[in-house]
Write a structure and sequence with these properties.
9 helices, mainly alpha, disordered N terminus, disordered C terminus
Length: about 210
């Protein structure tokens, strides 16, 4: 019962964390969106189309973050990492430029740029965290607890080696030394395979040791 309670508690914690990250990401996206849209309008983009520019810039961050997590450990992961870095640089720089342009004269430019750079950076970090939280955990493979199950699943190498040795001798005409070299066993082991019709598990232990 204890592991089950911990599992429910972990799910509640993950759900709470995801809800919080989504809320924070929405706020960061909105702040960055309004700043970039206003910067696009100030740069000559039509007011009816200015909303698309922040979607493109910050959308690259979101999509690239998901792709980075999905392709983790693969060689092709460098491409979403490159897009993520480029999108983050463009978004942070554009937000900082907008802050400097739109800030009041009595506000230092460094302060305005620093404050404006927070939303895109938070969006980058929170998106990555949300993807990690929502990714399913790897399922553990069932382990054999009893020795009987392990003995049932484990293959017996001796009958297989004897059958291969018989085939090599009858069909290929190999000698005992050639068969032993091919199978990685001692020639005396091959000789005993041909001397007796079957081997027990106890014999197998003695031969391999």
């Amino acid at each position: 019962m204890l592991p089950e309670t911990r599992t429910r508690g972990g799910r509640v914690a993950v759900a709470t964390a995801v809800a919080g990250t989504v809320f924070i990401a929405a706020g960061a996206f909105w702040l960055s969106f309004t700043a970039l849209a206003d910067l696009a309008r100030r740069s000559g983009v039509d007011a009816g189309q200015a909303w698309a520019w922040p979607l493109i810039v910050d959308g690259i961050i979101v999509v690239s973050t998901v792709a980075v997590v999905a392709l983790a450990g693969q060689r092709s992961a460098w491409y979403p990492w490159a897009l993520l870095a480029a999108g983050a640089v463009v978004s942070v720089t554009a937000n900082a430029i907008h802050a400097v342009v739109a800030a009041d004269a009595d506000v230092p430019s460094v302060l305005a740029a620093s404050v404006a750079a927070v939303p895109p950076l938070v969006l980058l970090a929170i998106t990555h965290l949300t993807v990690i939280l929502t990714r399913p955990l790897p399922t553990a493979e069932p382990s054999h607890e009893s020795g009987e199950e392990t003995a049932t699943v484990a293959p017996s190498p001796v009958p297989v080696g004897r059958e291969v040795a018989m085939l090599l001798r009858e069909e290929e005409g190999w000698s005992n030394k050639q068969i032993a070299r091919h199978l990685g066993v001692h020639p005396s082991t091959v000789g005993r395979w041909f001397a007796r019709p079957a081997l027990t598990g106890h014999d197998n232990t003695e031969e391999t040791t």
